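Exercise 7. Given the components listed, write out the predicted structure of the assembled complex. Treat all entries as one system.
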Amino acid sequence: MSSRAQAEQHIEVHKFYGGAMALAAFLALVLQAFLNKYGSWAAMLELPLLIIIYFSVSRRSPAIGLLLGAAVGILQDAVSHMPIGFYGIAKTLVGYVASSFGARIDTEHPLSRFGLVVGFFFFHQAVLTVLNRLILGRPGIYFSWRLLLASVVNAGIAMALYPALDRLRKPHG
Amino acid sequence: MIDFPSKQRPFTLLAIVLLLQVLLLAFQIKRERDVRLVRVWAAELFTPIQRVATWSLSGLGGGWHNYIALRHLRQENDQLHGELDSLRLRNRELESRALEADRLAALLHFRDTHTEAPMLFAQVIGASADSTSRIVFINRGERDHLKRNLAVITPDGVVGKIVEVTANSAQVLLITDKDSGVGALFTETRTQGVVKGTGEPQLQMEYVVNEERVHAGEAIVTSGEDRIFPKDLPLATATAARPGNPFQKIDVKPVARLDRLEEVIVLLSQQDISLKPETEVPASAPATSASPPTNPKGQQ
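Answer.
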């Protein structure tokens, strides 16, 4: 057996209580829409993205990750002014890639989670920029200091949010 | 909980989900002139295919029209070549008939302009089988009142004389024959001599003294001294002269086209006639006005 296969065997696959993923995603969308009413600072937040990253990494299933991402993204499109599929595509890709990451590295450590959130925040932003440019015909940026700040803010929120979500896991055994 | 085929076909599922959402986007987004993006993509997707299809069909059509549909071209080409060869033969035949008509028209014109001299038209029907003699046969004989030593001419000039006569044909000794001799004189100086055949296309004029100055191109006519040819018929032109002993050696060229004889005129008497310029056929003379060429009975 290869060393890579041995490493994967030590990575746990977490399961959650029924409806936990759906409920968390729904609440994230509602909260995101709610907070957006209170100023431009709220626009830096990407709570649905944090939810997708967390459950995809935890479940370590690409299918579940991409479907969760697609569902949350399309709902986010539905409650925003963006065309349906805009966030859907971006979050589908994030869910798929995050689940792949979760199957290969340890994502339980806070620093790992912080790094994953920052990385996926920029990945998510890059996909949105590509979609903006290619499909919507609008300008978009891949990096700015504001985006960096937003990624750090979201990673910080994730540091508080993810331990809370860990409580929704089914106990092993 | 639903058990997704997470490890079996995640990438296929990803592609399907992404494709569906991209299509969803394309149905919603409008580009310039209010055209939906899906229509733009469809046009961009299908236009090259349609272009290739059109090009292919055009190529097939071109191949059909230029190659397959022309598979009978070789056969048709061969057929047309055959028709062309046939038409060429027909054209040569018509040209030959036209030339014959022209010659007959010249003969008729000659007869009409020389009504004072009795003459008879004849066709050349053969030549001597002997390569050393210059003899032709004509389709006239005793039945046409021909006899020996009658002059035979064309509108161009002297041809020869009749040497043998049968019931329906006669033998004509051409002036190029070795045994032929015609009394002649130069038109300018009136110097007399005898034009003798050599067996070759060229003739020689003899009995001209060395003191006589002869110019190349000088015309020679019959003198009438031989009692066969009327006087002043065009006979030959001088081509070269050189001193000899005791007479000059003068090369002359016959004016009649002896190598292309087809119709000739037999003079039934030695009455003087002049061949040129009166015998020249007018340009407007209709070639078809000639009487049938094979059996002219125009004795005058």
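Discussion: The two ends of chain A are 26 Å apart (CA to CA). The helical segments of chain A are 3-9, 20-35, 47-59, 62-78, 86-102, 110-136, 145-166.
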